[in-house]
């Protein structure tokens, strides 16, 4: 099972992905986590992406596609991946389809966590106060939200046309979101 958890920043993708890893033994592939790890390791890649991330912009397709490709064998061995924060552009979505097809696999399900902008901004304000992540700063978060609306949300029709898209109300309490996600997985 290859699943994409889709939605704007702070929709709860990471939280649900981590829960699914624990409950279903799948592998979580979060490009955001991979990029943050590159930054903390001080690698050349980390240095290259730091300013882009801190500004709330998307890093280039080539970089994130390569990061995902590197991890596909591990995901395959685990019986599937949860893609979290990837793909974010149509080029990434098409590259993912091609990479999976060349391994005889495909995306099985795309779960869209729907949360309205006002709730996202409120959640982010709380996370910024707690964790102080540079790209959660209110003005940067607005840029991240705009990047989602302009570059990532247009992927929804792409997956809808393939009959893979299921909507889940991400405004609900965490446990209810978990139940809805599990139901979508069970039905696919
Ligand atoms: P996230 O934790 O998924 O919100 O990602 C944090 C930041 O990493 C984003 O704001 C982007 O700058 C970068 N990033 C993560 N995933 C991607 C992606 N698939 N494409 C482009 N940039 C990404």
What binds here, in terms of ligands, is: adenosine monophosphate
Q: State the end-to-end distance.
A: 9 Å
Which structural class do you get from the secondary structure elements? Answer: alpha/beta
List the strand order in the largest sheet. Answer: 2-3-1-4-5
CATH class, anyone?
Alpha Beta
Topology summary:
Layout: E1 3-6, H1 13-24, E2 27-30, H2 31-41, H3 44-54, H4 61-77, E3 81-84, H5 90-101, E4 109-114, H6 117-131, H7 138-152, H8 155-161, E5 165-169, H9 174-187
Parallel strand pairs: 1-3, 1-4, 2-3, 4-5
Helix pairs in contact: 2-3, 4-5, 6-7
The structure holds adenosine monophosphate (AMP).
Residues 9, 31-32, 35, 52-53, 56-59, 64, 85-86, 88, 92, 135, 144 line the site of adenosine monophosphate.
Architecture overview:
With 188 residues, this protein is an alpha/beta fold. The chain has a single domain (3-187), classed as P-loop containing nucleotide triphosphate hydrolases (Rossmann fold, 3-Layer(aba) Sandwich), CATH 3.40.50. The chain is built from nine helices and five strands; from the N terminus they run βαβαααβαβαααβα. It has helices at 13-24, 31-41, 44-54, 61-77, 90-101, 117-131, 138-152, 155-161, 174-187; strands at residues 3-6, 27-30, 81-84, 109-114, 165-169. A five-stranded parallel beta sheet has the order 2-3-1-4-5. α2 (31-41) crosses α3 (44-54), α4 runs parallel beside α5 and α6 (117-131) packs across α7 (138-152). The longest helix has 17 residues, at 61-77. The radius of gyration is 16 Å and the shape is globular. The mean pLDDT is 95. Bound molecules: adenosine monophosphate (AMP). Adenosine monophosphate binds at residues 9, 31-32, 35, 52-53, 56-59, 64, 85-86, 88, 92, 135, 144. Adenosine monophosphate (AMP) binds at residues 9, 31-32, 35, 52-53, 56-59, 64, 85-86, 88, 92, 135, 144.
